[in-house]
Amino acid sequence: MEGSMRAMVLREPGQPLREESWPIPRPGPEELLLRVHACAVCRTDLHVVDGELTRPKLPLVPGHEIVATVAEAGPEARGIEVGTRVGVPWLGWSCGYCRFCVSGRENLCDFGRFTGYQVDGGYAEYTLAHHRFCFPLPEGYPDVHAAPLMCAGLIGFRCLRMAGDAPRLGLYGFGAAAHVLIQVARHQARRVYAFTRSADAAGQRFARELGATWAGGSDEVPPEPLDAAILFAPVGALVPAALRAVDKGGVVVCGGIHMSDIPTFSYDLLWEERVVRSVANLTRADARDFLALAPQVPVRTEVQVFPLAQANEALAALREGRVRGAAVLRVLEDA
Ligand SMILES: [Zn+2]
Ligand SMILES: [Zn+2]
Fold this sequence. Notes:
alpha/beta; seven-stranded mixed sheet; 17 strands; six-stranded parallel sheet; 8 helices; about 325 residues; globular; binds zinc ion
């Protein structure tokens, strides 16, 4: 396909994205050319744009929660037909032969490449993706509602797996990931305790509407001890706070790619086999399993939609905590 496309481009971290006209890229042998319909805006995008993740490709088209249709396939890209609607996640490629890949941990691949960070992503009318890292999407989700499944949903789901069967689950930070995950957790008959900034009454109300047993400030102690807590807010001080809230043997899962420093804390908080761990990236198995589960729950996403050209406004809204649910860029007009 010839011609040009609109793209929102990061030229320099710390600077706003610029609307530019780029040539429509040509797919390599194993790649798909994708017509982007929608792309959700993730907190990781903020970390990239703000320069907290320090090794982006530049210039860069951000965005790794892509909903698109296949416009053209490279000669060795088999298995997904032109015209198929697919989702593209953060994991853009893994090598398949390093010791992590061969042990079911391609999320930790030594040579992994990430969408909207090391390869161009979805804040554009077209993008390329490796055919093995595109996933057919469930029917019944309009494009803008499907987009947040691709990271908020997927990473949240991986965090939930790492939390174990924990019947009493705490969620710190009630944004895009938590609003999806609470629906999965309730479907699994878990009790959910939602923690937000202490003054965020709207966020706490939103959590209760979605079935939280309790919602309060992150400085509060929940009414009963938790079996696990997942941290989506990128605030290191929440690690000791969450350790205080979990029972003996409890797990604290840090779901973000970047977090402010964790303050020192007494060993007492970790004693009795409490565990602190991070979750990094995702595997294709996570994607397949979550995309099969989402329509069964059924997960419904609440979205605040921005046109592509307003990507900077969407990022600002996310940075300032003004988004209820997930922020999504509408790229194709009738998406
Ligand atoms: Zn690998
Ligand atoms: Zn993300």
